[in-house]
Design a protein that fits this description.
Blueprint lengths: L4 E5 L3 H12 L4 E3 L2 E5 L5 E5 L14 E5 L3 H10 L8 E3 L2 E7 L5 E7 L2
Parallel strand pairs: 1-4, 5-8
Antiparallel strand pairs: 2-3, 3-4, 6-7, 7-8
């Protein structure tokens, strides 16, 4: 078994698609009611509209973690794109920046120390 990707449920597909295009620096492969962004390692993040009643579409206790090479570079790039970033804070083995998507989901960018 290996990791394939993460699907985020949203009723704000277009707004989230713009956000994740800026965040991930990648264009999405669009579909009817969904969008998929392929990451450098072949895994993916997808957005999908709810397909059954009661699906959660807002942030909660889930956190999307994305590894980056440089927090400083990502903060500069995302700030220029209009995405607010927290101040970096240290964690064991590196540092992390927290941002929030349009559905109030938490996304953390992690850069590990060499």
């Amino acid at each position: 078994m290996r990791y394939d990707g993460t699907m985020l449920i949203t009723e704000r597909l277009e707004e989230c698609q713009r956000f994740y295009t800026a965040l991930l620096g990648a264009q999405s492969a669009p579909g009817a009611g969904w969008a998929r962004f392929t990451l450098a390692d072949g895994s993916w993040v997808a957005l999908h509209t709810p397909w059954r009643p009661g699906m959660t579409t807002t942030g909660g206790s889930q956190v999307l973690l994305l590894q980056v090479d440089s927090l400083d570079n990502e903060i500069a790039r995302l700030t220029a794109a209009g995405i607010a970033c927290s101040e970096p804070h240290e964690i064991p083995g590196g540092a992390v920046v927290t941002i929030t998507d349009p559905d109030e989901r938490t996304v953390q960018l992690i850069a590990y120390s060499d």
